[in-house]
């Protein structure tokens, strides 16, 4: 069990989508039961669950999260409680676990972005699959060019650099194009 | 282009991981070094955009996980397997009728990686229908629908699947013409290597070994690793 848990966390840090699926299925019933009992009305608990799972997953990928204590499940429930508290405009998070305080990455949503950034998002989604992946590995996953070479099989770091700048150029041109 | 050390700083900053000293140094540089400021703002903007896009994609992904029913999967599996077998048998039949050997040994139907069917939902437009038919092995129908879509909108990725549908329907000549017209180094075209690979197989089928070999050599040296092992062994067999 402990070994499985460690393996799950390792896979989450790697950004493994199957691990995300496993996380989602494993704790769904317990999470829904727990929160349904505690939240009165007008709250979509399934939605809360989905958002919490994604937040946990993104935290593993982006911060390479290593839990110092507690399990993935405890962490997931704590994230759920904080999201719930934020939703009801509580001034302080409902639960303050240490490991939460050490993870200050602020989540963002599309509707919180300024117009220009929303446009950038729109054009980013229109890019070809390979360009999106190239930008994703650099800006989102935070991999170095050397790591990207190892992961993708591109020839060398210079190829990666020039490919990425071509993709960026394309993105910028698209924004200027649609801004006209 | 920014130095790797600056990128590490940008990363720490967007994730809120700078130490107090680092944060102070960062602010100072941010105020005085315009180039640094510009680079960081661009990094941050893209980081946020891609994080949000990723979140939206993950939500969609979870929808496919969340639908109940291991049962449904089990129900579809034998059907999928049967379709695969039939497609395989069909190809064996075609190629046995015209004994050529290598092309058919190395041929496999390229999977639909663009629009995998979501269970339960009806296709909304001609393109979705095309991919749905492609998935289920109705290649003639798929080819027709891809063609319809392409009449109004040029798109290399869709053209590639149009060619794949034609190829699977046994219409080699038409597939070849399309594949030959696709771009070779457009970063937005996702299937450049795949295009070369299938073109090479068609050339082999048409007994144009020289052109096939030249494409395969090019793929081997400049490609991104797609079918690397197959390319190597195919080349040795062609010698």
Description:
The complex is a heterodimer of chains A (180) and B (239). Chain A is mainly α. Chain A folds into two domains: 100 residues, Rna Polymerase Sigma Factor, Chain: A, CATH 1.10.1740; 69 residues, Orthogonal Bundle (Arc Repressor Mutant, subunit A), CATH 1.10.10.10. Helix content of chain A is 71%, strand content 0%. Chain A is built from nine helices and no strands. In chain A, 27% of the residues are buried. By secondary structure, chain B is mainly alpha-helical. In chain B, 74% of the residues lie in helices and 0% in strands. Chain B contains twelve helices and no strands. Chain B has two domains: 63 residues; 139 residues, Tetratricopeptide repeat domain (Serine Threonine Protein Phosphatase 5, Tetratricopeptide repeat), CATH 1.25.40.10. In chain B, helix 6 packs antiparallel against helix 7 and helix 9 packs antiparallel against helix 10. The chains are: A mainly alpha (180), B mainly alpha (239). At the A-B interface, helix 2, helix 3, helix 6, helix 7 and helix 9 of A face helix 1 and helix 3 of B.
SSE order and pairing:
The complex is a heterodimer of chains A (180) and B (239).
Chain A: H1 2-13, H2 17-38, H3 45-63, H4 72-87, H5 98-101, H6 115-126, H7 129-140, H8 145-152, H9 157-179
Helix pairs in contact in A: 1-2, 2-3, 3-4, 6-9, 7-9, 8-9
Chain B: H1 4-14, H2 20-32, H3 34-66, H4 70-97, H5 102-106, H6 126-135, H7 139-152, H8 156-168, H9 172-181, H10 192-205, H11 209-222, H12 228-238
